[in-house]
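## retry 2 of 3
previous attempt timed out at serialization; input unchanged, resubmitting
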Amino acid sequence: MRAVLKLIALIVSLPFILFAISFAISNREAVVFKLWPFESEIGMPLVLAVFAILLAGFGIGAIASFIGSGRIRSRARSAESRVRELEIDLARERRKSEQAVEKAREEGAVAALEKSSTAPAIAAE
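## retry succeeded, writing output
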């Protein structure tokens, strides 16, 4: 199954990789970037600028999704701690139940011994 998934991932990602390589080879000219309030200029190949912008967008999206999923992670952590508490309570109750059963068995055995010792013996004729 994993081999099939890897093959599908390769088939899907291969066109994107080929497009990125073709774009990088075709756009090697230098471009100049200016930012309005500043007087400085930055010159770099177009492909580097595009990949830097894509990388920055990916980073911003990753940070936004991490922050947005904070409430879900918090609820998951609290649910896990609640499950641990309930498992501990369940184990404690099982131990109590087993001890009560053992105590009842012991008392039942003692009661059976007491009954047999107090019962009159039947004389054999």
